[in-house]
Design brief:
The complex is a heterodimer of chains A (about 575) and B (about 400). With about 575 residues, chain A is α+β, with helices and mostly antiparallel strands. Chain A has 15 helices and 20 strands. Chain A has helices spanning about 10-15, 15-25, 60-70, 110-115, 165-180, 215-220, 270, 275-280, 335-345, 350-355, 380-385, 390-400, 405-410, 420-440, 465, and strands at about 5, 125-130, 140-145, 150-155, 185-190, 195, 200-205, 210, 235-240, 245, 290-300, 300-310, 445-450, 460, 475-485, 490-500, 500-505, 515-525, 535-540, 545-550. With about 400 residues, chain B is mostly beta strands. The chains are: A alpha+beta (about 575), B mainly beta (about 400). The interface between A and B is large, with 74 and 66 residues.
């Protein structure tokens, strides 16, 4: 290793900004008068300090949300700002939105197979129908099982037997592992011979009135769903979410009646990251109606818990039988509309020519033409547009943490009767995972997990290399600074480099307890120009050891509009 | 602004500033990250308010309620009393009399003074959702309906106008025995057609050019008992909008004149076929409609009941009812191009003719037009169709609130 005169002019010019950013990530930062890093940085959990019992239910109209997203949000220019709910080490702390699981801790096969399930499965020996199903794309009922517990039952359409129910089952496991609050869902059966209608069961009629639920209402549903050979029906049963239901959440702004919701949703990294997770799983239906806020009591305080309630519009189920365009286009795009208009439709779109191997239980899902950057949900959300490459990197690491074994285990929970269909779904997920990691882990400097030993030796990992999506020789460069946590001032020490991921320190590192060092880490490697963009990491001296307290992968603010506009690699 | 409002505004501005420009000091200063976040949450707790939808959201929610849950109590009605009346405005009031059954009272008025007022009772879920009943009663008047003479040899300069008034009452039952594919429809209607002199000043009234000897039905008031039956095979996704499937049907009509002077029979043969191409991004849609009439012994078909071609649903480049005779044939071909989920454009070609004899309903001497248009549609309906059609007789602009076929 040698000490070099390496210096990044650009980096130094942006230093004051970077310091500010590293110090005040959460909620766009708070008062930084005095310390830049607080003693409790990096926080591992987002506090919910206020009582949210005043939160009131409301439902966002789906038509308004769709129109607003298609014609207003679509013109939204991404701010280019860094996510605001991340901690100072660029990670998303646990919260009522998100729990760190895969990518942070090890998720086992048993865990992913269990997913969000904590309670017992429904007892399908008797179903008592109590009302219609009010959410989800596919028909169903709200019913009590033989044990008296309330469930939301959803059937498969006749042309996708096992498809809709299997998608919910598998996607629920995947999104639980990714960290989202999920509904406990079970594949079970619905035997029309063992169905009763609750005496008080009602259904909303076109007249607006709720009237008594009848056998004909059951028939009306069962006539248009897939039936098993023995006359029963395969259903997915979703357990009633505990707490008071408050309606869905939006992908922008905050709930005005939730005091703990202080980060605009478009700046929550886990919501931005749904662009990556959605692309992986084909979760195209990103609307408020597929989310749910519930008022629950935790530690004696009412708080709002946020669910991705319905992740069933995934894999091949995002398109109906005679639909091909979803995941390739929004419901409406001015550019493609113009192109088709002026070319009389001769300007073909990718969805018109992509090859699908269609299994009835899988639908249209493929990984060969899939491009994470051109994947599109039904409508653009503000959070979707605000995704930056550092958000995508964070998300891609989680996607990459799904081993083939985990993916196949999750897919197996879908209980697909055709083993070829099950294999195909897993294979496509693996292909799409590989494309995501290959793209996003190389889109930024992939240095992760910096550790500064007591001796001063700095060791890092390379996420792209570790994921097998990059290789070749690389030179790891470190520019070392003393950092004043009170003023934000930095003082250059020296620069060192290594041909491995372990870098010797320069002389002159501070040794006093409570002192800080900042290190700009970059990587020279042919074919990876983005790796040269340094990341800035901060360590605090505690006793004889150094603790990572800050990490910034990209500057606080990118050029407005760049966030979602970065070209396809 | 009230003091409460000012305080809320101030608090919101303060919060917003804190959330975007965090370098400015706040009091009291937090000493931990957690405390700093809690401070923000405490500040927000002071300005909580329920979600308040804006005006646009309120309107869209109302629209969604209409689309999802059916016709609103008050609704627009664009159905003209008769083709050729020009721009139509109207309104209706619908009221559910039970969970699914409703009564709709509606009326419309056109720029040429055509009037329609009617009430309809619909029961859409009869026989375990296999049948739909419609009971309709009303009255209409067309003040300047066009008549150009019989056959294909007429000139558009031969236009005459006539007026008719018609009270009517009907019942129609549509039945899908297997809930799909096979469709049976039967109906009975009692109506009185009173043909009168045209009220327009631009064209001569029909009785000034024709006599009762040369034009059957001129100046008559005819009371019909009209019975009809249809057998059809329909596998379109929806009659209101479809990109695949087809419809093939035959309808038999019997018009019984109370005075046994103008009774006749009519058979309608209709075929619709949609051919999706490139995953339905293109659709070749074909439509054929043939109408044949046959006189009952010693009776004639009145001129105003004769089959026709011409107008926004048959030969779009021609004026409404441009050609009339005992039999009619309309052929339409469209190349529909999906622009997005809500819009299609279409290039179309129409051809058609009328003939005194069924044997002459061939492909010789067809009048034709061509044009282009856009359609705004949902999954099952086409609420707006705008087309421009060109024929040897000129250019026609068409606004319609239904699918062409």
């Amino acid at each position: 290793m040698t000490t070099s005169s390496f210096a990044s002019h650009t980096r130094r010019a942006s230093l004051p900004i970077l310091v500010f950013v590293a110090l005040g990530q959460f909620a766009g930062g708070v008062s930084t008068k005095g310390l830049h890093f607080y003693p409790d940085d990096p926080i591992a959990r987002e506090p919910e300090s206020q009582d949210a019992s005043q939160a009131k239910p409301y439902e966002i109209g789906s038509l308004f949300e769709m129109a607003n997203n298609l014609f207003v949000t679509a013109g939204y220019k991404p701010s280019g700002t860094r996510a605001r709910n991340i901690n100072t080490t660029d990670e998303v702390p646990d919260s009522n939105w998100f729990t760190n699981r895969i990518g942070t801790t090890t998720v086992t096969v048993d865990q992913i197979v269990r997913g969000p399930i904590v309670g017992a499965a429904p007892d399908p020996s008797r179903w008592v129908l109590i009302r219609e199903k009010t959410a989800g794309a596919h028909p169903g009922f709200t019913a009590r099982d033989a044990k008296g517990e309330t469930w939301f039952l959803e059937f498969d359409p006749p042309y996708f037997p096992e498809g809709a129910t299997g998608a919910v089952e598998v996607a629920t496991k995947i999104f639980w592992a990714l960290g989202y609050n999920q509904v406990e869902s079970f594949l079970t059966t619905f035997d029309p011979k063992r169905v009763e209608i609750d005496e008080k069961a009602t259904i909303r009629r076109p007249s607006g009135a709720r009237t008594k639920f009848t056998q004909d209402d059951i028939n009306a549903i069962l006539e248009r769903v897939a039936r098993n050979a023995d006359g029963t029906y395969r259903v997915i049963a979703g357990r009633l979410i505990p707490g008071k239901i408050l309606g869905g959440f939006l992908y922008d702004k905050t709930r005005p009646d939730d005091p703990n919701d202080v980060v605009p949703h478009e700046h929550r990294r886990e919501l931005r990251a749904l662009r990556v997770f959605g692309a992986w799983t084909n979760l195209t239906d990103l609307k408020a109606a597929n989310t749910l806020d519930a008022l629950v009591t935790e530690n004696g305080r009412s708080i709002v818990k946020h669910y991705l309630q319905d992740v069933g519009s995934t894999f091949g189920m995002c398109n109906d039988y005679y639909e091909w365009d979803l995941s390739w286009e929004h419901f409406y795009q001015a550019d493609t509309t113009r192109r088709r208009l002026f070319s009389f439709g001769f300007a073909l779109s990718p969805w018109q020519t992509v090859d699908y191997v269609e299994y009835p239980s899988i639908g249209k899902f493929e990984g060969d033409r899939f491009d994470p950057r051109t994947w599109k949900p039904q409508t653009p959300t503000t959070a979707y547009l605000e995704l930056r490459d550092d958000d995508a990197f964070w998300a891609a690491r989680r996607v990459g943490a799904f081993t083939d074994e985990l993916i196949r285990a999750a897919v197996h929970t879908g209980q697909f009767s055709d083993p070829m269909a099950e294999k195909y779904l897993a294979d496509v997920l693996i292909k799409r995972r590989n494309k995501i990691t290959s793209l996003y882990l190389n889109a930024v400097n992939p240095v992760v997990a910096p550790r500064l030993e007591a001796s001063g030796r700095l060791t890092v990992d390379n996420a792209a290399v570790a994921a097998g999506v990059a290789s070749g020789p690389a030179t790891y460069r470190a520019a070392w600074f003393r950092f004043d946590n009170a003023t934000g001032q930095t003082q250059a020490i020296a620069e060192t480099q290594s041909a491995t991921t372990s870098i010797e320190p320069p002389g002159g590192l501070p040794t006093a307890a409570g002192s800080f060092v900042a290190v700009d880490l970059s990587v020279d490697s042919d074919g990876h120009p983005t790796w040269r963009q340094p990341i800035r990491v901060y360590f605090r001296r505690a006793g004889d050891s150094w603790t990572l307290v800050g990490l910034e992968r990209l500057p606080e603010s990118l050029a407005a509009g760049r966030a979602a506009q970065t070209p396809t690699h | 602004m009230s003091s409460v409002g000012m305080r809320r505004l101030f608090a919101v501005v303060t919060l917003a500033a804190a959330a975007t420009t965090s370098v400015f000091a706040q009091e009291p200063e937090a000493t931990t990250r957690e405390a700093a976040i809690e401070q923000l949450q405490a500040e927000k707790a002071a300005v909580l308010h329920p979600y308040l939808p804006g005006k646009a959201e309120g309107l869209m929610n109302r629209a969604e309620d209409i689309l999802v849950n059916g016709v609103p109590s008050w609704h627009p009605s664009f159905e003209s009393a008769y083709y050729g009346g020009g721009v139509t405005v109207g309104a209706g009031y619908a009221h559910h009399v039970s969970a699914y059954n409703q009564i709709d009272v509606r009326g419309s008025y056109t720029i040429l003074g055509y009037k329609r007022i009617e009430a309809e009772f619909t029961a859409p879920r009869m026989f375990h959702r296999r049948g739909e009943l419609s009971l309709l009663g009303g009255w209409r008047e067309a003040t300047q309906a066009a008549f150009y003479g019989l056959g294909m040899g007429t000139s558009k300069d031969n236009r005459t106008d006539f007026d008719f008034r018609q009270p009517y009452a009907s019942g129609t039952m549509t039945f899908w025995p297997t809930r799909r594919l096979l469709m049976l429809r039967g109906g009975l209607e009692l109506s009185q057609w009173s043909q009168r002199p045209g009220k327009g000043t631009t064209f001569p009234s029909v009785e000034t050019v024709y006599s009762t000897q040369t034009l059957p039905g001129l100046g008559t008031s005819t009371t019909y008992l009209h019975s009809q039956g249809t057998v059809g095979f329909d596998w379109r996704t929806s009659p209101g909008y479809s990109r695949r499937g087809g419809f093939y049907g035959v309808t038999l009509h019997d018009y019984r004149d109370k005075d046994q002077a103008f009774g006749f029979r009519q058979i309608d043969y209709e075929a619709i076929q949609h051919f999706p191409i490139l995953r339905e991004a293109w659709v070749i849609s074909l439509h054929a409609l043939a109408r044949t009439t046959s006189d009952k012994s010693d009776q004639q078909v009145p001129f105003f009941m004769l089959p026709y071609v011409g107008g926004g649903s048959t030969l779009r480049g021609f004026i409404s009812h441009r050609f009339r005779d005992q039999n009619a044939l309309a052929l339409q071909a469209e190349w529909r191009i999906m622009l997005n989920r809500f819009m299609d454009m279409a290039l179309f070609y129409d051809a058609g003719k009328v003939a005194a004899h069924k044997a002459d309903l061939d492909f010789n001497g067809l009048k034709s037009d061509y044009g282009a248009g856009v359609r705004f549609h949902g999954p099952t309906a086409t609420p707006l169709r705008i087309e421009v059609a060109k024929s040897p007789e000129g250019l026609k602009l068409i606004f319609a609130t239904t699918a062409i076929f």
